Amino acid sequence: MVDLKGQYNDIKDIVNPSIQEVIETTAFINGPKVHEFQKNLEKYLGVKHVIPCANGTDALQIAMMGLGLKPGDEVITADFTFAATVEVIALLQLVPVLVDVNEDDFNINIEAVKKAITPKTKAIVPVHLFGQCANMEAIMDIANKHNLYVIEDNAQAIGASYTYKNGKKAKAGTIGNVGATSFFPSKNLGCYGDGGAIFTNDDDLAHTIRGIVNHGMYERYHHDVVGVNSRLDSIQAAVLNAKLPHLDNYNKARQNAARKYNEAFKGIKNIITPITVNGCDGICDTCDCHVFHQYTLKLKGVNRDALVNHLNEKGIPCGVYYPIPLHKQKAYLDERYNEADFTVTNQLVKEVISLPMHTELDDEQIEFITSTIIKFING
């Protein structure tokens, strides 16, 4: 699904000396490379504060801790996403409120969010799924009306932009009260292990979060807030620093691959290719509204599982993101949920399939993948 080795080979002359520098200086935790990456990412995103941390799941948890959410507070998020989003809500003894998503772009459904709000609701967590933003303008309007926090799960959309109705743009993860991202190796901006970061323009919130990530300390052995141990190590920061200048080009390569996929599948009635929320194709030369962390098809009238098996037999990797809705996962079952409220998610889990998507895809690979799928569908 990803070609990390090919990507590494292109930048190893930068990565290797950077890693070696960390080893030689032995500044392994909160060293100069971490602070350098923090400043570089702040500049790239146009956000006042980036707080690096150990992984994307921690980033979400720490964001919620920083906002002071209390046990019993309700947090609304999407049913169709990876479990980390709901996992941290449950870990903090908050109440996850799962809602349905849109059929076209897979992102959280605005009307479902409105319907889910109660006097106990304290936050909304939109997930920018597969590489494009949820409807942040509508979500912020809802949040402002009901005095709710917005925590952006930006693990899959680093580098994407959201375009407001007036044409203004903002980077994904910088619009709500706080954003969280992952630098897992397969992400659009990935390190060589685990890593994550939290973004905010709120000075006070940034100060609180900086304490939380470091055992609640601002001064050594003085614990002012309840914290955790969640720090981005310097070796991972060195890798990310080497990759960050290439991120826009990485995303353009993904968009170019998506364009070629789209062209190959054009006219195949059983396949619905990805759409973008801004109405463009999402893969034009100047567009950054979709950065294609995943390239996800919807299949109509096709045995998805049989296709998965066929692709595996042909040596073509693929993925089903996600095969089970969160509201049906054993860990998150809740009698409050009504299946009628999850019609889209329940259908998507039967239809979606994600194809290889990374910066190293070439025309020969894409042609082999698409022709194999089309031949299977056409019998």
Secondary-structure map:
Layout (H helix, E strand, L loop, with lengths): L3 H22 L6 H14 L3 E5 L2 H11 L7 E5 L5 H8 L3 E5 L10 H7 L4 E5 L10 H11 L2 E5 L7 E3 L5 E3 L6 E5 L13 E5 L2 H10 L4 E3 L2 E2 L10 H10 L3 H19 L5 E2 L22 E5 L4 H10 L29 H9 E4 L7 H16 L1
Parallel strand pairs: 2-3, 2-4, 4-5, 5-8
Antiparallel strand pairs: 1-9, 6-7, 8-9, 10-11, 12-13, 13-14
What does this protein look like?
It is a single chain. The protein is α/β, with parallel strands linked by helices. The protein has 2 domains: 4-245, Aspartate Aminotransferase, domain 2, CATH 3.40.640.10; 247-378, Aspartate Aminotransferase, domain 1. Helix content is 39%, strand content 15%. The chain is built from 12 helices and 14 strands. It has a 7-stranded mixed beta sheet with strand order 1-9-8-5-4-2-3, with helices on both faces. Strands 12-13-14 form a 3-stranded antiparallel beta sheet. Strands 6-7 form a two-stranded antiparallel ribbon. Helix 1 (4-25) packs across helix 8 (234-243), helix 2 runs parallel beside helix 8 and helix 3 crosses helix 4 (84-91). The longest helix has 22 residues, at 4-25. It is globular and about 70 Å long.
The ordered H/E elements are HHEHEHEHEHEEEEEHEEHHEEHHEH
Percentage of residues in strands: 15-25%
* Helical content class: 25-40%
Number of continuous helical runs? 12
Low-confidence stretches: none
At the third CATH level, what is the topology name of the largest domain? Aspartate Aminotransferase, domain 2
